[in-house]
Specification:
By secondary structure, the chain is of the alpha/beta class. It has helices at about 10-30, 35-50, 65-75, 90-95, 100, 130-140, 175, 195-200, 220-225, 235-245, 255-265, 270-290, 310-320, 330-340, 340-360, 365-385, 390-405; strands spanning about 55, 80, 120-125, 145, 150-155, 160-165, 180-185.
C-alpha cells in the first residue's frame, strides 16, 4: 500500500462523482432485495479494495442473487459456477485449445470463463477439488491465470465465494484466508416476511448492457454532468481502485494499529497478512466516501476481517468507541451494520428517505406509498431525538412529514 496522496490523478470532485456513481449502481442492485443491501455494498467495497469476499449462510438466502445483481448493474463480464467434488478445472478455466494441442502446445480457451471475468461468484467454493483450488489460488492472489502454456492477465476485480458454513478441514484454511472480507447472512427475520413476499413478486432490475442500459438516478446524472454511460461504470470502479492504492493512510495508522491490538487481545485471530491487507479495505472505504485521506470514519470495515460470525460480533463490541462515529456516504447499510454508529444510521436513513420520496413523487396517490413513508418516519423518530437529528436527516424528515400529511 503506497501512503502518498495524488490529488492531480484523483481530484476530490471527480472522486466524489465516481463514488456517487458506484453508490447508485449498488443502490440499484439492492432495490427490491430485503436485508441483503450489506452484501451488495461489501462486493463494491472489495472490488475497489482489490480483495475477495466470502459470504456464509444457509441455502436459499439470496447470496448469489445479491452478487448477480451488482455484476449486472456494473455491466462487466460475469462468471458464476456451483462447485462440487467432481468439478473439473476446465469447467472454470476453459478447455484445452485443440488447435494448439495439434501443434504440440498445451494451451487453454479462456473466452467466457473465469480468467476473463470482471466479477465472479463461486458457490460452495470449498467443495472444489485440489486441482481447482490450487489453480484458483494463483488467480486470486496475482490476478494472473497460469495453466499449461497459457499465461493470462485477468481483469478480475472481485471474486465472491459462498458457502453454507465455514470449512472445518485445516487444509482449506490457507485457501479461505485469501477471502479477506467475510459477510454472514441469515434468513430474513419474521418481522420482515411481508416485505420479503412483496419484494419476491417484483422483477429483478434489468442488467446493464450496451443495448439496454439501466437508468441512472437524477442526482448521479447531475453530479457527473451527463457522463453516465453504463460502459463507464467499470471505469469508475477502476479509478476508485487506483485512488485507494494511493490513499493517504499515515494519519489513521496509529488508530488502526490500536484497533488491531485490541482485536488480538480480545481473542479475535488477526494474522500479520490480514492485518496488512485490512488497510486496503480502510482505503477503499475512504475513496468511496469521496476522500483521498483515510480517517477514523473508515474503521468500520475492520469487523469484516474477523473470520467467524461470533468473532465479528466480538470485534464490533471491542472496537465500539473507535468506530462509534464511522459512516460512509456510498455504503450506508454496510457501515451501519458493521459499526452500529449513529452517524452511519443517519447516513442510511437520509439516503433511504430521499429514495422513498423520489419514488413517491412518481407514484399515484395510494395507501401503500403512504405506509412506506410513514414507516421511514417512525424509524427516524425511533433512532433520534429531535435535538439530535443531523441537519440533512432533519430536512428529509420534514419532507416526509409534508408528503404524508392529508392533502
Amino acid at each position: 500500500m503506497t501512503h502518498t496522496s495524488t490529488p492531480a490523478e484523483a481530484p476530490p470532485v471527480a472522486l466524489r462523482q465516481d463514488a456517487q456513481l458506484i453508490a447508485g449502481v449498488v443502490a440499484a442492485a439492492g432495490r427490491g432485495m430485503v436485508d441483503r443491501e450489506t452484501v451488495a455494498e461489501v462486493v463494491a467495497l472489495c472490488a475497489v479494495a482489490g480483495e475477495h469476499l466470502l459470504v456464509v449462510g444457509p441455502p436459499g438466502t439470496a447470496k448469489s442473487e445479491a452478487v448477480r445483481r451488482v455484476a449486472g448493474q456494473l455491466g462487466g463480464r460475469y462468471f458464476e459456477y456451483l462447485l462440487g467434488r467432481f468439478t473439473e478445472p476446465n469447467e472454470l478455466f476453459g478447455p484445452v485449445d485443440l488447435r494448439s494441442l495439434r501443434e504440440g502446445r498445451v494451451e487453454f480457451e479462456t473466452a467466457g470463463m473465469l480468467p476473463e471475468a470482471d466479477v465472479a461468484f463461486l458457490d460452495e467454493v470449498f467443495l472444489g477439488s485440489t486441482a481447482v483450488l490450487n489453480t484458483l489460488l494463483g488467480l486470486l492472489n496475482e490476478r494472473v491465470f497460469r495453466r499449461g502454456g497459457t499465461v493470462l492477465a485477468s481483469p478480475l476485480r472481485v471474486c465472491v465465494g459462498a458457502a453454507n458454513h465455514l470449512p472445518e478441514d485445516p487444509a482449506l484454511a490457507a485457501f479461505a484466508d485469501r477471502f479477506l472480507a467475510r459477510v454472514f447472512v441469515d434468513p430474513v427475520a419474521d418481522a420482515r416476511l411481508e416485505e420479503l413476499l412483496e419484494a419476491g413478486r417484483r422483477p429483478a432490475p434489468a442488467p446493464v448492457t450496451a443495448s439496454a442500459p439501466a437508468p441512472v438516478t437524477a442526482s448521479v446524472a447531475s453530479l457527473r454532468d451527463g457522463a453516465t454511460d453504463p460502459d463507464d461504470r467499470l471505469g469508475a470502479l477502476d479509478r476508485l481502485a487506483a485512488a485507494a492504492r494511493d490513499c493517504e493512510l499515515d494519519g489513521v495508522t496509529p488508530l488502526l494499529a490500536s484497533a488491531l491490538r485490541r482485536l488480538r487481545a480480545a481473542g479475535v485471530p488477526v494474522g500479520d497478512r490480514r492485518a496488512v491487507r485490512s488497510q486496503s479495505l480502510v482505503a477503499a472505504a475512504a475513496v468511496l466516501d469521496g476522500r483521498t485521506v483515510a480517517t477514523a470514519r473508515d474503521l468500520w470495515v475492520l469487523p469484516l476481517i474477523a473470520s467467524t460470525a461470533d468473532t465479528q460480533a466480538l470485534a464490533r463490541d471491542t472496537l465500539g468507541d473507535l468506530i462509534g462515529k464511522a459512516a460512509n456516504q456510498s455504503l450506508t447499510h454496510a457501515a451501519e451494520e458493521l459499526s452500529r454508529s449513529s452517524a452511519a444510521r443517519a447516513e442510511r436513513l437520509a439516503r433511504t428517505g430521499a429514495a422513498l420520496l423520489a419514488d413517491h413523487r412518481g407514484l399515484p396517490e395510494g395507501r401503500d406509498s403512504r405506509l412506506r413513508l410513514e414507516a421511514a418516519l417512525r424509524e427516524i423518530d425511533a433512532g433520534f431525538a429531535p435535538a439530535d437529528l443531523p441537519a440533512v436527516l432533519a430536512g428529509i424528515r420534514a419532507e416526509l412529514v409534508t408528503a404524508v400529511a392529508p392533502s
